[in-house]
Amino acid sequence: MGKTLYVFSSATLKRKDNTLMLQTKTHGTSYLPVETVDEILVMGEAEINKSLLGLLSGKGIVLHFFDHFGKYTGTYSPPESRNSGQVFLAQAAHWLDERKRHELAAAFVIGAIGNMIRLIKYYGRRHEHIDAGEILGYLKQCLAQAPDTPDVQALMGIEGAARNMYYKFFDMMITDQDFRIGKRVRRPPNNIMNAMISFVNSLCYSAVLTQIYHTHLDPRISFLHSPSDRRISLNLDISEIFKPVLADRLIFSLVNRKMIKSSGFEQAGEGIYASENARRIIITEWEKSLRGVITYPSEGHKMGWRRIIRTEALNVQKYITEGLPYEPFIHRW
Fold this sequence. Notes:
Elements: E1 3-7, E2 11-16, E3 19-24, E4 28-33, E5 37-42, E6 46-48, H1 50-59, E7 62-66, E8 72-76, H2 85-96, H3 98-126, H4 133-145, H5 152-166, H6 168-173, H7 192-212, H8 234-256, E9 265-268, E10 271-274, H9 276-290, E11 293-296, E12 301-304, H10 305-322
Parallel strand pairs: 1-5, 2-6, 5-7
Antiparallel strand pairs: 2-3, 3-4, 7-8, 9-10, 11-12
């Protein structure tokens, strides 16, 4: 599995024969064999030519774009060489079948809430002074209710209520008062913690989307989130499972270990965003966490997180195309 290349400052990305050439004012010119790259995340202005896109397409490299404030703006994906008409039709049929769509959407919610519960219990064993009993009780109720909701809209309501309660745990875990969340606000983030959550979540969405492109699934057809909301949304579905164990755990670690400080965030317009330096710190630790390995429950052997995400997407594909049971990944701490 290839590496992820992050481009922070203004840069020029070009093709040099069959090599990726990166030019920046800060670091000069460097060359990367395309065989070693799986995805590129551009965090600043970048000059890209048609020849480069042809190289990336031929090698199946995904290009994600973020604006100056770290907000995700779009993705250039390789040609649909991995797309399958058979899988596309099966995926669409599952979306059109209310029972099947609800069943898969409920699995994503069960995975999300299940991992919220596991994360709270994990930290509860290490911080005995934290009393999260009320939060855990509410999340367990939501977990029990999810499979029996009448439709996907009601299921979304359960997931939203569970997540709002879950965010109360953030203020229990975080020791720095500058990072208190209060209430989750997304567009635009109104405080430092909301800004941090939004940025780390966008990294999670991008990582999941890249792995979806390595399957036959069509990322435009989602089951929990409405496909009409945006062009690409299946990564939002699958990311719900991984945000507690990857994104939220990283946030707790960065703040409580004082690796990131409130001075690393700045006001821009009506919102608050991470500075370039703060984004560099977050991304460095994000990469470290993704390179970690754990035992994947259904496989019984150790995997890195990107492989786990891809396997999860493949399990969704098998559920859709082969009717195999799908149980969402829940971390076994």
